[in-house]
From TrEMBL:
SUPFAM superfamilies: NagB/RpiA/CoA transferase-like, Winged helix' DNA-binding domain. The keyword Membrane does not apply. Gene3D superfamilies: 3.40.50.1360, Winged helix-like DNA-binding domain superfamily/Winged helix DNA-binding domain (1.10.10.10). The keyword Ion transport does not apply. GO terms for molecular function: DNA binding; DNA-binding transcription factor activity. Residues 3-58 form the HTH deoR-type domain. PROSITE patterns: HTH_DEOR_1, HTH_DEOR_2. This is Transcriptional regulator, DeoR family. It comes from Ancylobacter rudongensis. Keywords: DNA-binding, Transcription, Transcription regulation.
Amino acid sequence: MALSSRHEDIIALLAASGEQTVEDLADRLGVSRETVRRDLARLEANGHLRRYHGGARALANGLEPETEWPFAQRMAQNAAGKKRIARAARDLFAADDSLFIDTGSTTIAFAEALAARPSLMAITNSPRIAATLAANHSHKVFLLGGAYGADAGESLGPLALEQIGKFRARHAVLTIGAIDTHAVMDFDLQEAEVAKAMIERADRVTVLADHSKFERGAVFELAPLARIHRLVTDLPPSEAMVRALAEAGVELIVADRD
């Protein structure tokens, strides 16, 4: 395949899916991973994409977007990686644990994996997560109310924040929009407020984030890395991120590949 044609195919695949791993691109294009890495380096240098450790993501009009994809699209992106994260995170919790769980595509996968665990108490702003966990009658589930956010199907705003303040949980399990070497962040103010309130009312914080969240920026800071106890992801982050997490005392858990 000609180099220019292969580059066009890579850009088209990223435009369709939002992101691709090096492994997936190599399989789709029928070339070696090293060839894909060289292609990605050239395309990034020319402003066509942004690389991360193990893959690349599309840019919006040549610029890194400062917003997230719509929720339905995020549910479809990297679904296999999110399921691996969910299975790895499920094993971190035991009977009688209490958990705040915020709304996100990865926490929905987590709830599906967690449902078979016995005797948990969960507090969530997601009706879908609440229904998933409540199907196991040994769980005690509290659904927060508030203004309804239609995109992700979640409770937001002052009423939700007030209700979070009535609970104290052992754990907060959260999704994020972005993480860099200093902090975890989100793109939406109201979702950030919910996550921050859960962090304040939890003893320990576990973040579930697939590889696309690494070394990105977002407008609203949720917490410095030092406030996070565990980070569960699907692919190893860069050496700089690994070093920053270690210095902040964050336990890094990379889910096993299928």
